[in-house]
Amino acid sequence: MSIEIPPTVPAYETEGPWWRGEACSALLIGVLSMIAGVLVGVVWRAVAPLVQGVVSISNGQKSAYYANPETKGFVGQDGAFGICASVAAVLLAVAAFVWFRRRGPIGAAIALAGAGIGAAYFAAWFGVWLGPGSGSIIAAAQNVPNNGTFDLPLQIGATGVIWLWPAIAVGLFFLLMLIFGPSDPDPEEQFPQWADPVDLTAPGPGEQSAR
């Protein structure tokens, strides 16, 4: 006599809704991205080269101009921000891969892109706010005398450096998933299971009727 055994439920169907892991990964990576945005703004303010300005007062009117018109300080500011943003993007991509490569990779990728854009713009704004005059030339040159020099506010001349953050983060995350990500498991072979042993020497229904 045999007893039918109900099929087992796969493990992934008992771990809860599929979107729960995606939401958790997106939320965590989003929070970490904003924290990284604050740190990038602080570091950029500390390492970015400053550009000098000169105050000129004529007929009671104050104006400001570059102390060195051929300065490459603004290029250095863009480069410094690009380096800081790239480092943050690499760290976030590696963290997302290590934590969510098996559960929640889609949410992590979306957060790396969306939160990465927001964090990059926030880092640029925060770094400018921490810089001279909090981003205002008037405030930076307010108490400077005639022919005196002062530090001009930070600025991002090439907005493309802001988009380095999400581009590097998402690109590196997908590259890691492609090379080191989990592969699809091989299907398990199903064998018949018997609750009680079967006597193969016993006569079948046809043989018993013939007798």
Could you outline the blueprint of secondary structure elements for this entry?
Blueprint: H1 18-47, E1 52-58, E2 61-66, H2 73-100, H3 105-130, H4 137-140, E3 149-151, H5 164-180, H6 205-210
Antiparallel strand pairs: 1-2, 1-3
Helix pairs in contact: 1-2, 1-3, 2-3, 2-5, 3-5
How much is the average pLDDT?
A: 81
The largest sheet is: 3 strands, antiparallel
> Using only CA atoms, what is the Rg?
32 Å
Seen as an oligomer or otherwise, the chain set is single chain
How many beta-strand segments?
A: 3
How does the overall form come out from the CA principal axes? Answer: elongated
Distance between the termini: 22 Å
The helix count comes to 6
DSSP strand content: 5-15%
Q: Can you list the strand order of the major beta sheet?
A: 2-1-3
Helix content: 40-55%
String of helices and strands: HEEHHHEHH
Structural class: mainly alpha
Unreliable spans: 8-14
Structure in words:
This protein has a domain at 26-51 and 74-140 and 153-178. Helices cover 53% and strands 8% of the residues. The protein is built from six helices and three strands; from the N terminus they run αββαααβαα. The protein has helices spanning 18-47, 73-100, 105-130, 137-140, 164-180, 205-210, and strands at residues 52-58, 61-66, 149-151. A three-stranded antiparallel β-sheet has the order 2-1-3, with no helix packed on it. Strand 1 and strand 2 (61-66) form a beta hairpin. Helix 3 (105-130) runs antiparallel to helix 5 (164-180). The protein is elongated and about 120 Å long. Residues 8-14 have low confidence and may be disordered.
